[in-house]
Write a structure and sequence with these properties.
nine-stranded mixed β-sheet, 310 residues, alpha/beta, two-stranded antiparallel ribbon, 11 strands
């Protein structure tokens, strides 16, 4: 049987590639895709998600449900400099949208489906954790019915990508992340910058996709992203943040994890959004998160490119 998942996205460039991997892998039963404000507005994230499903010709098969249009407590903070004004780096610009989102509210959709399929659904979160925090607040017992939560976010050993210490998804809504971290999920896996920065899509990978609609889409959507990554890091490539979170659901052996206590800073002028990982058990707290600390990049790209070429 295919693994049931709900994918929660703020569809920018790498979220879109994560959706493509989830669909093209053939291994996942997408119960639905929920959208959240983050890289772009909720409206744009929803439009982009529908566009990607249309591009994959699966628009009629997978419901898309809108969620939170803003963080729990904070003002909006978009990432247009990375993802472009449209969120997809200009790819699919001008392409009409045929798919319509399904009526409903993402946190309710998550609660209803997780309870209806107790112990079967994995939640893959690739945007700020606002929708999941709202779902937990509405239904605290949700945590006992989810198979696993895998979220892309945070950084525990390296530097951030918005501030010196904070990763984008955590910075946008740290209060939501704190709710999720402390909700009591038995299986909660952090796929952070420590590993996503080791899976770098380069020109060679894109050439492997060939002169195909998929190859052209990936080439267009990542073009500015590659240039920006080079300007910041001196490497002409871009990190596959969100596709790695999907890949971990497909094959947990791609990453090495350690269960550790992790919290997040919400009240600091300099460090808001920092994921604080207690490697030496100095806080004497029960470990709450499976933290990804290493990744087999070659195995990831074999799976990722294989799926996209299928």
């Amino acid at each position: 049987m295919k693994q049931k998942i709900i994918l929660d996205v703020d569809t920018g460039i790498d979220d879109a590639l994560g959706i493509i991997l989830a669909v093209k892998s053939g291994q996942l039963d997408l119960v639905g895709i929920t959208t959240v404000n983050g890289n772009v507005s909720l409206r744009k994230a929803t439009e982009n998600t529908c566009k990607i499903l249309d591009f994959l010709q699966v628009g009629e098969q997978i419901p898309v449900v809108c969620g939170a249009s803003e963080p729990l407590l904070r003002p909006l903070f978009f990432e247009h400099a990375v993802h472009g004004e449209d969120g997809l780096g200009g790819a699919l610009a001008g392409v009409p949208i045929y798919k319509e989102p399904t009526a409903g509210f993402a946190p309710d959709f998550i609660v209803e489906n997780v309870l209806a399929h107790s112990g079967e659904i994995t939640l893959i979160m690739t945007g700020p954790l606002t929708n999941l925090a709202l779902a937990v607040k509405k239904c605290p017992e949700l945590v006992q019915h989810v198979k696993e939560v895998i979220f892309m976010g945070g950084v525990v050993r390296e530097h951030g990508n918005v501030t010196p210490v904070a990763e984008y998804n955590m910075y946008v809504d740290p209060e939501a992340a704190k709710v999720v971290f402390h909700a009591g999920f038995p299986q909660l896996t952090l796929v952070g910058l420590d590993v996503t920065r080791r899976v770098l899509l380069n020109e060679g990978h894109i050439r492997e996709l060939g002169d195909t609609p998929m190859g052209e889409y990936v080439r267009q959507s990542t073009s500015d992203y590659l240039h920006r990554y080079f300007g910041r890091n001196g490497i002409y490539a871009c990190a596959m943040h969100d596709p790695l979170a999907v890949a971990v659901a497909l094959d947990p052996k791609l990453v090495t994890t350690q269960k550790l206590y992790v919290d997040i800073e919400t009240r600091s002028e300099l460090c808001d959004g920092q994921t604080v990982c207690d490697f030496q058990n100095r806080l004497k707290k029960e470990p709450n998160i499976n933290v990804c600390l290493d990744v087999d990049a070659d195995a990831f790209f074999a799976r990722f490119l294989g799926a996209l070429k299928a």
